[in-house]
Write a structure and sequence with these properties.
By secondary structure, this protein is an alpha/beta fold. It is built from 14 helices and 15 strands.
């Protein structure tokens, strides 16, 4: 059984849980280690007790770097009881650094994989600081065996053109995990609002975009109750002056708290007609390039996606002739897009979405196994490289004996 040591930046991130479940479904043994930003019992994986490297704070880059440096000094002791892994994965740049440190502790002969699912805005700065940070990424990523990323636009706009990394790349989209017992049996049907009930837009997942929050609140006010905004997930409180107070004061908006992914997806998406697949958090950069989790979750569960013009998400939808696209980022254009929605228009959008091949939205057990097999192939390649590097030394030794 392939043993994977998985270093993550946030043990409370539901996406980390999904990746661990995916690796386990593919047949791997996973040892999970990482930092914790907050407590989230819904992100726990049954049977996996993580190695906690410390606490970090959201949007506190300097504090995170200090925490990583401290953990590197303590890492040997923290890993003392862990058997040598076959593969090490570092999720995000700071954890790639920790993964490299772990590799040296265990002997330095196993492949390291760099998992990067967001391009942080600091990496995209054009000043000396941004150049230095990309240099650090090149340093720690130079000997990685594989890069895992989630959007072709990340490859096009960053990894191939700016990063300086020259690695094999595996595109691993943010699809819904659908294996036996978890999201495998999913059926969808149109859900027209009952008489006198509002249409509902669901914004689920990592809630970090203040611009989206304000726009949706203003839109729902202008629609005077014809639309309700339903929020679920983990708010990035560092990005809002008062998230809870803002939502409480918005008359047609409500926050339903966190949820378990993928177990709760059918229930929460089944409550709404539309899915907000827009993010202005790093507008013009990462937000333009990503293909978010909610795109796949909403697609699988029949919630018509709303994307923003000019983004990778909008291009994804346009290629399939599905979803709705917002032309400009303000409430007035959202009113123009949705204000005249009726039964016929909604059903046309829903039916186009429902006609899609459902496999594009979800990761099944066979795909999980394929991922683990790809990671296992790295160990064979690593072993062959080690043998080749040893050959010259072996020949020199033989020459000395003759």
């Amino acid at each position: 059984m392939l043993h994977i040591l998985y270093f993550v930046h946030d043990l409370a991130d539901p996406a980390v849980r999904r990746r661990v479940l995916m690796l386990q479904a593919g047949g791997a043994k996973v040892t999970l280690a990482g930092f914790r930003r907050d407590d989230n019992a819904l992100a726990a994986v049954h049977g996996v007790e993580p190695i906690e490297l410390g606490r970090t704070r959201d949007a506190q880059f300097a504090q995170r770097i200090a925490a990583v440096a401290k953990s590197a000094l303590q890492l040997r002791g923290l890993l003392r009881s862990i058997e040598k892994p076959d593969v090490i994965i570092g999720r995000n740049l700071e954890m790639l650094a920790v993964a490299n440190r772990a590799k040296s502790i265990f002997g330095g002969d196993m492949p390291v994989v760099y998992e990067c699912l967001d391009i942080h805005r600091l990496l995209l700065r054009k000043d000396a600081f941004g150049g230095a940070l990309r240099g650090i990424e090149r340093h720690f990523g130079a000997d990685a065996a594989l890069l895992l990323t989630s959007s072709p636009a990340f490859v096009e706009h960053y990894f191939r053109s700016r990063s300086g990394l020259d690695l094999p790349i595996l595109l691993l989209e943010n699809k819904v995990l659908a294996i036996e017992g978890i999201g495998a049996e999913i059926t969808v049907a149109p859900r027209l609002p009952a008489a006198n009930e509002p249409w509902k837009i669901g914004w689920f997942g990592a809630l970090r975009c203040r611009k989206s929050l304000e726009m949706l609140a203003e839109f729902s006010r202008q629609m005077e109750g014809r639309f309700e905004i339903v929020l679920r997930g983990r708010p990035a409180y560092s990005e809002f002056s008062d998230f809870d107070g803002f939502v409480r004061d918005a008359p047609f908006m409500r926050f339903g708290g966190p949820y378990k992914n993928p177990e709760d997806l059918a229930a929460i998406y089944g409550e709404v007609q539309f899915s907000w697949a827009i993010d202005f958090f790093e507008e013009g950069l990462n937000s333009n390039w990503l293909l978010p989790n909610r795109l796949y979750e909403g697609g699988l569960h029949g919630a018509v996606p709303i994307a923003f013009n000019g983004t990778e998400t909008a291009r994804f939808l346009a290629n399939r002739k599905i979803g709705l696209t917002l032309e400009k980022a303000d409430a007035a254009h959202l009113v123009a897009l949705l204000g005249d929605i009726n039964k016929e228009r909604y059903l046309a959008a829903f039916n186009a979405l429902a006609a899609q091949d459902r496999r594009q939205w979800m990761t099944d057990r066979a795909e999980c196994q394929g991922l683990v097999q790809r990671l296992a192939s790295l160990t064979r390649a690593s072993g062959q490289t080690a043998e080749l590097k040893a050959l010259p030394q072996m020949h020199r030794n033989r020459g000395g004996l003759q």
